[in-house]
Design goal:
Elements lengths: L8 H35 L3 H47 L1 H14 L4 H25 L9 H24 L6 H23 L4 H30 L1
Helix pairs in contact: 1-2, 1-5, 1-6, 1-7, 2-3, 2-4, 2-5, 3-4, 5-6, 6-7
């Protein structure tokens, strides 16, 4: 039994999911904005051009992330609500069948037949919907996903991540903009790779190498495209 004030598994999982979403949003902001501004830097050396392109990419990317997350989480929430409503209907129309089903779930978890039946009866008497939702559906009726929170979180994390390459390419002198951006992006992607690996309890080294490698590859390709386009139209 959890101590009073101790976080429950539902709360911990929800917090971890939001943290993962934040890390992934920041990671997307870093890579996409770095590729954009480095690509523009390959075609133009003007600070104002880089700033406008970077800000446009930041705003467009943040809004896109927010919209996509809102739609995705709203769909998930609608599905969860539909499943809960179906469970309510089944509990109203065939309570005995649902009680047998709940007891069967606890038998599958290793409880004896009599004990599983008693547990199912007591939980049904206390809160039948919650018992079925947690065991059968894996849903917390009081902890449904919030699409607005997901959208705002993704938008903010993307914008914060995008600010790093934008500042790195705009603030330094002309000759050092791309190298400075590469260093800043490498450090930032190494950090987000490390955090995502730790959250997922995965090996840190491969995650960091993959994350940094993908980001640097994106920057190299977009810089080459920008350089080629700039040379062709100069």
């Amino acid at each position: 039994m959890a101590h009073r004030g101790e976080a429950h598994s539902w709360d911990v999982n929800a917090r971890l999911n939001w943290l993962r979403a934040g890390v992934l949003g920041a990671n997307d902001g870093i890579i996409s904005t770095a590729g954009l501004v480095v690509g523009v830097a390959g075609a133009s050396t003007g600070r104002s051009v880089l700033l406008i392109a970077g800000l446009a990419g930041l705003v467009a990317g943040a809004l896109s992330m927010a919209g996509g997350e809102y739609v995705s989480v709203s769909t998930q929430r609608d599905s969860e609500r539909a499943l809960l409503e179906k469970e309510r209907m089944e509990l109203r129309t065939m309570p005995e069948v649902e009680l047998d089903e709940l007891a069967g779930f606890y038998e599958d978890k290793g409880l004896g037949v009599d004990l599983a039946r008693r547990v199912a009866e007591e939980l049904t008497e206390h809160d039948a919907l919650r018992a079925h939702a947690e065991v059968e559906l894996g849903i917390d009726p009081d902890g449904l996903t919030n699409p607005w929170a997901a959208a705002v979180s993704s938008m903010i994390s993307f914008a914060l991540g995008a600010m790093l390459p934008l500042l790195a390419v705009v603030l330094p002198p002309e000759g050092s903009r791309v190298p400075v951006t590469g260093v800043v992006v490498t450090i930032a992607l190494a950090l987000t790779g490390w955090v995502s690996a730790r959250l997922g309890v995965a090996p840190v080294g491969p995650a960091v190498v993959r994350n940094v490698g993908i980001g640097l590859l994106a920057m190299a390709l977009t810089y080459a495209v920008g350089l080629g386009v700039g040379t062709a139209f100069s």
